[in-house]
Each structure stands twice: as C-alpha cells, then as structure tokens.
C-alpha cells in the first residue's frame, strides 16, 4: 500500500505546500536528508484557530487575546501541520518548483525527527498528547517509515498566533 | 578508558532507555547520525521534581503549581536527562529491541549537537548554567567525543511538567 | 562575487567567533554538515539589548525587567546573531583554533536549516518578521547558497536575557 493509497483511505489529500512567510524556502535537501521549515496548521493559507493551548476553558490566551485552545483541538491542528510538512517534503522530492504530489512520498525512507512546538499556557504540560496528532498522521500515511524520534516542547508563542508548529527531518532515497 | 569505565568511575549506571510517552521511537539512526527524542529527567519512569526554573525561592511555577525549581537542582536534572539520552543512543546502536548497555557507547564518534530546553520563569536567563549539567555529563562519560555544539533555550512548559528536556544528534561508527 | 566581497559591500566584517558560554564548542562538523551552537547577538562579547520582544512600547519584559524590545530592533539583533553564526561556521571550516575569516565561507555549499528563537512577550506573534533579519543576512552574504529551511519560535527566555538566538545547519564542501 503506497502513501498515496493510505492518504486516499484516510480521506485526505496532500495540500499545496504552504508558501514561506518570508525569506526562506519550504525545505532543503542535503545528501539523503530533507530538513523542512516549521509548518503551521494552515489550511488554504489561513489559520482556523489562534491562541495558546491550555486546560482552562474560556480563559484568554493572553490579555485581550483569543480563548485558550483545547488540547484535543490542538491535537487536530498538529495533524494538519504534519500533513503540510509531508506536502513540503513531497514538493522537495519532486524538484524545484514542482508540486510533488503524494506519489513522491514513496521516496521517503524514514522520518528521522519531528519537533513539535506547542504554544502553551502557564502550567500546561500536555504537549505529548497534542504532538501525538502529528506523530499519528505520519504513521497512518507512511506506515513503518513514519516512525520517528521526537521532541515536544511548550513555547510562549508561535508565528501568526498558531497553536502548534511542526518541523521534520526526513531520510529520502 | 572506555565510556563504560568512566561511567563506573562516576558511580553511574546507564539506565534502561526510557519508553516514549506516545507514538514515536526513542531514537532513529540515519547514515552515521543518530537523532534522539527529547529526553526528560525521568528516573525509573518518574519525575522527582516538576515545575519551571527560576531564582525566586518558594514562588509558584504557575498559579497553583509547584514551587519554582532552583537552577542548581535543574542542573542536576539536566545531567539525568543527558544520561537518559546516552541510554537511548546505546540502545539504538545495539539494534532494535536490545538494551545496548554502556559498551555500545564505544561506537560514538562524536556528539554533534545538544539542544537543552529549560522550562523558565519570566526573567530567568540562566539557561546555560542549567544545561551545563548535561554538557558536563557528556564530557565526563565520552571524553573528547562528548564535546558538542549546543543551544540552550528557555521555554514555557515541558511534557509532564519536567523542568528540562535534552535532545542529541550523535555521529556513530 | 565571493562571500567576502559581499560582506565588504555590505560594510560588514566577520566578527571573531563568539566563545561558548560553557562546556561546549561553537560548531561541530560531521560529514558534509556543520551544526552550530545557538548564537546570541553578542558584539565584542556583550549584548547591547536584553529583554523579550513585544509590541507594547515601554512595558517591562518581566516584573522589574528591562523594557520590551521593539520587533524592528529585534530584527537587527537577529541579523547580528546570524553574522556570529557565519563566523562560527567559518572558524569550523578553517579548522580547530583558527579564525577562518570570510574566505572560508566559499566552502559553504548551502545553508540547510536555521532555527530562530525569539524571546516573546505573551501575545507577540511576529516571530517571522524578527527572524527575517537573520534570513536576509544569509542571503545577502551567501547568495543562493544562503537560501534555507527555517523554523521561527517564540520562547519564554534566552541565555543572558538575549532577545534572539539563531542556530544553523550548513552543508559544506
């Protein structure tokens, strides 16, 4: 079963690789490794939810900010960010300018490392549960090749107010 | 003098490699590099101390949270996290499922990079002193092969409320 | 046009590679990759500005701390940190103990990855604008070889109270 098959079975389509927010590129290949830029849970170029993740329902993310993001909602956002990261890897494998598409993911030998940054309210320590959304998506799409080393970290704030950001190092053929 | 000799001289034993908290693996080897997952200062699967690191003795880590963790105590925790990271590297070198043991560390050519995340109270800027606990342990166990590049960062919160998290990239033979 | 030429045209000189704050080294080469330590915007060994970055002019970075750092000022600091990172890469290429100098940068094949950590006030989400200072400098000095993948993250605090920290992975010949 290919990654493209698994995506279809999950009802997922690989999105267009998000455009960098500034003076950098979505991913760089060096030898057999691809390093991605940090990916936000953008859908069609926009964030559906902003804020920091915490348990206290309804409390503001910061003074005057949006309400805290529920950990389960953040888990879904991590999944979306991971899908964007796969799109970026696929585009890098297909070569400069091309969009790649799911077929390019057949050249992924192994996801080596995932770092999941979770914008976190003081005292929120459930980062592993949130980042599991990203880890699970990689396994569902790539099978054993999706099994990776991982760091989950709670940070103060992320670009555009994103609740999560995911970056990958991937070994490719 | 081998890494195993140095560990014995330090009165340290390589612990069992901690089990991942979720859907990932402790370490991945790609070519001559091993990337570890972020390691917490777990001892027998539990954290002896939780909270964020700060100078103000007795103040809470967050509203209703445990007291701030003293920087010197955090330095010891960074040492423990680094020992866990070495256990993870040893297990990866010994192959899937095996425990590795200190002898496997003879195949470490060089620790390439250490990232030390320190859960930090507002205004705490002593991350280098804390992460030095991890850096020193690597030198004591691995000698010159333990000399690494490093980033020390103060973050909002870490998994399970851990005060520190350490990840490694290691070159292996 | 060489990197040394471009530095001269920018009116910049490669600084002396900053000395590590503790028990680690400025950079490690493994195969064709150089991993740098996290670089602060040190000039002659000191930080001109400390604090966290935020929009609210004049508010303290933390209780009793220095005023918030303006995002545009932080962008300049990110540029300085990136220049220090290039100095560290040059020194690593020139070999142990040597200072490298800009000529060594001709051996940079590609900047692979930049991680920019921005010490951020609650609700500050402009990390990309800040880290662009680092990204732009790499392009100005290295041309196409300076185009990199990137993660920008807002953190609680950084060593010595630095507003920004920059680390690189670089492919070298």
Structural overview:
Three copies of one chain form a homotrimer. The first copy, chain A, has 173 residues and is an alpha+beta fold. Helices cover 27% and strands 23% of the residues of chain A. Chain A has three helices and seven strands, in the order αββββαβαββ. In chain A, strands 1-2-7-5-6 form a five-stranded mixed beta sheet, with helices on one face. Chain A has a two-stranded antiparallel ribbon with strand order 3-4. Chain A starts with a helix and ends with a strand. The relative contact order of chain A is 0.25. The model of chain A has no long low-confidence stretch (mean pLDDT 93).
Question: What's the quick description here?
Answer:
The structure is a homotrimer of 173-residue chains. Chain A has 173 residues and is of the alpha+beta class.
Task: Write the topology of this structure.
The structure is a homotrimer of 173-residue chains.
Chain A: H1 3-9, E1 27-30, E2 33-36, E3 42-43, E4 46-47, H2 71-94, E5 108-119, H3 127-142, E6 149-155, E7 164-172
Parallel strand pairs in A: 5-6
Antiparallel strand pairs in A: 1-2, 2-7, 3-4, 5-7
Helix pairs in contact in A: 2-3
């Amino acid at each position: 079963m290919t990654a493209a098959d698994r995506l279809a079975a999950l009802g997922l389509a690989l999105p267009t690789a998000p455009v960098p927010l500034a003076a950098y590129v979505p991913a760089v290949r060096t030898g057999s490794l691809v390093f991605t830029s940090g990916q936000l849970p953008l859908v069609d170029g926009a964030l559906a939810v902003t804020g920091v993740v915490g348990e206290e329902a309804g409390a503001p993310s910061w003074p005057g900010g949006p309400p805290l993001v529920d950990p389960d909602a953040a888990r879904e956002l991590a999944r979306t960010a991971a899908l964007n990261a796969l799109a970026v890897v696929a585009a890098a494998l297909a070569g400069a300018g091309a969009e790649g598409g799911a077929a390019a993911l057949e050249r992924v030998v192994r996801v080596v490392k995932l770092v999941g940054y979770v914008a976190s309210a003081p005292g929120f320590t459930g980062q592993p549960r949130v980042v599991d959304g990203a880890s699970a998506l990689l396994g569902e799409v790539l099978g054993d090749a999706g099994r990776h080393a991982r760091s989950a970290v709670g940070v103060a704030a992320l670009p555009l107010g994103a609740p999560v950001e995911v970056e990958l190092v991937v070994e490719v053929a």
